[in-house]
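Worked example

This section walks through a single chain of length 138. The input is the sequence exactly as stored; nothing has been trimmed or padded.
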Amino acid sequence: MNFFIALLVSFLFGLGIYLILNRDIMKIAIGFGIMGHATNIFIVASGILQGEFVPIIITKINEYTTFIFGDDLASGIIAPIIEGTSEAGMYADPLTQALVLTAIVISFATTAVILTLIYHIDKEFETTDVNKLGRMKG
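Given that input, the structure is written out below as tokens.
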């Protein structure tokens, strides 16, 4: 992983922890969002592959369905990795990108629910301070 990406991930994760330790509910929600983004950046950055194997299947194409098959059980290849050499360069693993895309959608929905709850808490109790909310009875 690139040094600057690792520095960015650690900075965002630290900023998220700093905001979570705050007393304001809105800052806590923003801190969880920032930590989620830092985790997504880390997962995408860890999916970068270097070397001669590419995570793209190009070995056989079925002429009836145009599906691409690359599994070769005899030689132990079950993943979509081609044999032989490829162009020199860096490639991104599509599996990590799909997982991060799913995580972004889930975090968007979760953030929407949390912000709705914060809005109703602020409207009902007229405060977003965790200590003041904890002292309220009833």
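What to look for: The first helix runs from residue 3 to 20.
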